Amino acid sequence: MEQLELNHFYTELLQDIRSEQLSLEEGGSLEQLFTKQAIDLLSGGGETADARISFHESIVPRNRHKINAYAIADNYETLDLFVTILKCTEIPVRIQKSDIDTAAKLLLSFLKKSDNREYANSLEESSEIFDFAHTLNASAELKENLVRINIFILTDGIYTGEIPSQKELNEIPVFFRVIDLNYLFNISEKEYVPIEIDFEQDGFEVPCIKADIDNSEYQSYLALIPGHALVSVYEKYGARLLEQNVRSFLQFTGKINKGIRNTILKEPHMFLAFNNGIAATADDLKLKKTEKGYLIESVKDLQIVNGGQTTASIYHTWKKDKADIKDIVVQVKLSIIKDKNNFAEIVSRIAEYANTQNKVSISDLSSNTPFHVELEKLSRNIWAPPISGQSYQTRWFYERARGQYRNARSRDGVTKAKLKAFDLKNPKKQFFTKEELAKFINTWNEVYLEDKLVIGPHIVVRGSQKNYAQFIAHNIPENPDNKYFEDAIAKAILFRTAEKLYGIKPNSIGDMRYITVPYALSLLSYKSGKEINLSEIWKKQIVPDGLQTIIYNLMIEVEQFIKKNAPGALYGEWAKKEECWLQLKTFMF
pTM value? Predict the structure, then answer.
């Protein structure tokens, strides 16, 4: 049964990327379309964020290197690099270890070359990795904060061999992961693939006591985790250890807390007394009984719901200050969730109450808030006007929670005829997520809070998590109505039309679509937003030809301005700063 399901998943995956390739709206190579599909699944599962699809390959002997995509974490701690092995066969094939080793070697070669300014300067400005290569060897933030590099080897085949062993590059640990068809299938069926930590295998003793309680929802333990065990886990997983809502919305920066740093450096023996410790949840754990009491042997799906700042501060003080942390011990309140049917809800509630001291509560940010629930209802009940030449109406499907579109399609499409009917009513090109909604709305609306610009294109460029957090905090109404929904869709049509006009390599304005599109539309809104008839765009489901021409010309001007004025050719880094947006407005108007 599992093999049949895997084969069905593989067939659908290939159909998706082939249909996208044939689509006039998308285009692109099969390899890059597969790369995007795989990264979308990883991103949805919280394993990476804000990846840029950027292909570059050299096949020159003794100079071979390759990259398919990259992602720089918002706090500059983590660099995710992606390289793809695409077989595109009729049925899934086994991937050989030699293929994996070659892919890893090619990406490492690219990474080493990009650390050289001469190499970055030798790249054509139109190259997809021009901005990235310059960022790698010139970004002060990246050089200061980078603590781990993850190399993802993506493939549509099946791999059961050894994973390349951990390496170091300029004292930065490099971790390898193989994301094969089985992994993609598993993550498509789940919210994410859980982290499993084996303390005993890694040589750490984590003593604990079991709370004397008995209920059907959870079991609590109090543990003491050595500093070296905590930094080892953090070095490998970083922000992935944080419960997903917490990671997304509490602006986890990894910066060192001065009080924690001083305690580690001056009074490490007092750390346990001074620090409140960590609150965490897990799916399961294994205990080992010893003469001293119980030790945690391993833990499955460890998620820190409170104490991320403590964890990061210990790590960075150890890493940057070369602090001796042998006397550091951190207390952990660990809750094992028994009720698997309500696992996500219980974890989310624990995270909410563990973080009540934060300005923005987790409950205000979850997908179950009234705003999201009401917007979902609107998307299921409001029919878009038929496009010219089309006799039927369609819906814009808002995915409030991950997997809703796929589940609805499976539920309603039990036969080929019903599946076709579902796809006609709910075309995939009209499907959108919470993060995309935030991008469409924040691009169109500047928002100030006490004279501080909290919403603008520079926020959109920072990536989906950062942008979504600002959207929820500063840019949503209490009760979205029909007009709000229709205007939001008009803004979605504007954004996606602009992306299409910008184009796909090699037929594109350049290689800054993720920057140029939001900046150009923000300029359009700033200058003439009230004159743009959003209602008309909703009614016709298309951007008028004259407005398309204006948008296209505006994007050319915006791109030229950013390339001309960005310090040190760091286009992406400068575009994340408010200064870029303010200068652009001054220049254009």
Answer: 0.81
